[in-house]
Design brief:
Pfam family, one: Carn_acyltransf
Family: Belongs to the carnitine/choline acetyltransferase family.
Shape: globular
Distance between the termini: 44 Å
Radius of gyration: 25 Å
GO molecular function, one term: acyltransferase activity
Strand content: 5-15%
Strand order of the largest sheet: 11-7-6-8-9-10-1-16
Protein name: Acyltransferase ChoActase/COT/CPT
Helix content: 40-55%
Keywords: Acyltransferase, Transferase
Largest sheet: 8 strands, mixed
Number of strands: 18
Structural class: alpha+beta
């Protein structure tokens, strides 16, 4: 449970700096679309990875500062007696000459041995690769793009057919993604930075050609940079094709040539009388089940090995769905999340673009290689550049025909696939996911009121939860640590003494408005202070995870009093797991709840609105995403009324 509790979507860096960076990307995109040969000199930008050698290593916090911040985070969650017991366990652990000092020294040794930072390998393994529950819903994230300016098809083809509009849009996405990959490979992306300094760009190298491999005792991840593969995989009706999208020397081709390749796939499948089994379903199964099946498939046939290699090395995936999603985003976003039945997907690819036959499109992404802000940057790029234009210097070559991937399977594998379909459908049927697109106000109004938009949304979540359940809950917001070399995320423990004081006062009719505003201001200030500490590598959760991973045996475990106290797990039982994906100009997105009786909440803050996804599980009688959406909307309304007064 610990691993999953620490692995939600990551928070984007500040909207202001992100938008400045976005303008630079658009400048380069404009040059590319004008068929200008772009060089570093022409764009007058430093190379993508030019700042890597000046970005500092992630610090290891002192035991004292972690202990104090950790104890403070326990106060709103525990009774007085439970808190006193937990605080004594913490103090015993970190006392001078205590066992924590032994673990801290070992962590320093880890830092010396790791090339980039002390938590990188630990985090990848514990948060992702060792996690054995299915990646579908539990790990993977989803994105649904805004519809193009022309809209989607009002009268799409019936189920079972493909539309020309769908092929056009998919080909445009492919071409734009190839352009973005070119910019990464050639270091034409300007380095990201905030007012505090440059940000690590390493995660950009883990987007294309990235795949998670089911294995024992933990999974593996394949990434490559420069990503020079010439093919992608395309799925249609559960059939998988290796599709060449670049010339043998990496030459770019016109979009019409990519369309021809996609149409070839569709025609081949429609004219095939004996379809291949839906192997992709296995990627949505329990990781041990999938690892066993994959090893059996690889060992039983050379043809299977060839098929796996084509999938694993592909730049990214494309799923062409032979059905419309409908126009209601509250329903259609589930197609990106889980396809309603888990079919026609390969959930192990880091990037898989999904296009329905009415043209509505999205992405399903495997979380291990990177945090979502990086692909989010790509998605804003590819969708803002619709309709796609041919890249500069296209070649008139004709690409090799798509290769139909074949599978040799036995009865055991077919039984596993059939059971996978049952298990996946049960997991999907348990998902309770809704959207809240709140259009009454946004970042501009909050900034005029001198309020941090992100902290405000976090306070609204705290208020909504307290109003609905009449108690606080442990809350996770991810903070980016990309200010450090190979930094990923740290936890912001949003629930605090100050947020509880505010939410209680807000719900008390005897408390005056001025007092409520004062308490809200104080809670926001506390949240910002924690966010700054976390962003600077001085949060609680990553340090404690690092220390815990230095324990060698049961005898040592008994000495780690902090971890043995029940408050440790209790404080990480995040009933709200949240992430800010702003600016997200051209999409909305989400992920699953991380505990059975909690909510997974992803939000995008625009100038004049909030776009929020809320996910929980139907089997839990205590949670209801539709009801929570209503309470959250009311909280936004009531907070505006409070601040306006």
């Amino acid at each position: 449970m610990l691993v999953r509790l620490n692995s939600p979507f990551t928070r984007a860096f500040s909207s202001t700096s992100f938008k400045k960076s976005s303008n630079k990307y658009q400048k380069i995109a404009s040059l590319l679309q004008k068929r200008t040969i772009v060089t570093q000199m022409e764009t007058n930008q430093p190379k993508t990875f030019s700042n890597q050698n000046i970005i500092p290593r992630l610090p290891i916090p002192t035991l004292k500062e972690t202990a104090e911040r950790y104890k403070k985070s326990l106060l709103p969650l525990l009774s007085t007696s439970d808190y006193n017991r937990a605080a004594n366990a913490v103090d015993e652990f970190v006392k001078e000459g205590g066992f924590a000092e032994v673990l801290q020294k070992r962590l320093y040794e880890v830092d010396k041995s790791e090339k980039y930072n002390w938590i990188e390998t630990i985090w990848l393994n514990k948060a992702y690769l060792e996690w054995r529950d299915p990646s579908l819903i539990n790990v993977n994230w989803w994105v649904e793009f805004n519809d193009p300016a022309t809209g989607i098809l009002k009268n799409p083809p019936p189920e079972g057919q493909i539309s020309e509009f769908q092929i056009d849009r998919a080909a445009g996405f492919i071409s734009n993604l190839l352009t973005f990959n070119d910019m990464i490979n050639n270091e034409l992306l300007p380095p990201d930075q905030t007012r505090q300094g440059p940000l690590c760009m390493d995660q950009y190298t883990k987007q294309f050609g990235a795949t998670r491999i089911a294995d024992f005792p933990s999974d593996r991840i394949i990434t490559t940079w420069p990503a020079t593969a010439k093919h992608i995989i395309v799925m249609f009706k559960d059939q998988i094709f290796k599709v060449q999208v670049l010339g043998g020397g990496g030459e770019r081709v016109p979009i019409k040539e990519i369309k021809r390749q996609l149409q070839f796939v569709v025609d081949q499948v429609n004219n095939t009388t004996e379809l291949q089994p839906p192997i992709g379903l296995l990627t949505g199964e329990h990781r041990d089940t999938w690892a066993t099946a994959r090893k059996n498939l690889e060992s039983s046939s050379a043809e299977n090995k060839i098929s796996f290699e084509a999938i694993d090395t592909a730049l990214f995936g494309i799923a062409l769905d032979d059905y419309p999603t409908g126009t209601d985003v509250d329903i259609s976003h589930h197609n990106s999340f889980h396809a309603y039945n888990g079919r026609n997907r390969w959930f192990d690819k880091a990037l898989q673009i999904i296009v329905a036959n009415n043209g509505r499109a999205g992405v399903n992404g495997e979380h291990s290689p990177s945090d979502a802000v990086i692909p989010g940057r790509m998605f804003d790029y590819i969708s803002s550049n619709e309709p796609a234009q041919d890249p500069p210097n296209v070649s008139s070559i004709e690409l090799s025909p798509p290769q139909y991937l074949k599978w040799v399977v036995d009865t055991s594998i077919m039984n596993t696939i059939q059971q996978a379909q049952i298990n996946i459908q049960a997991a999907i049927d348990n998902v309770d996911g809704v959207l809240l697109h709140y259009n009454e106000y946004g970042a501009d109004w909050l900034k005029n009121a001198k309020i941090s938009p992100d902290a405000f949304v976090q306070m609204a979540l705290q208020l909504a939860y307290y109003k609905h359940y009449r108690e606080p809950c442990a809350t996770y917001e991810s903070a980016s640590t990309r200010g450090f070399l190979h930094g990923r995320t740290e936890t912001v423990r949003t629930c605090s003494v100050d947020t509880v004081a505010f939410t209680k006062a807000f719900c008390d009719p005897n408390v005056k408005k001025d007092e409520k505003i004062s308490l809200l201001t104080k809670a926001i200030k506390s949240h910002i202070e924690y966010m700054i500490s976390a962003t600077n590598g001085r949060g609680v959760d990553r340090h404690l995870l690092g220390l815990r991973c230095q324990i060698r045996d049961e005898e040592e475990k008994s000495k780690a009093t902090l971890f043995n106290d029940p408050s440790y797990v209790q404080s990480m039982y995040f009933k709200i797991s949240s992430s800010n994906m702003s600016p997200g100009l051209n999409f909305h997105c989400g992920f699953g709840a991380v505990v059975p009786d909690g909510y997974g909440i992803c939000y995008v803050i625009h100038k004049d609105k909030f776009k929020i996804s809320i996910n929980s599980y139907k089997k839990c009688k205590e949670t209801d995403s539709t009801i929570f959406r209503k309470v959250l909307k009311d909280s936004f309304d009531e907070l505006r009324e409070l601040l306006s007064s």
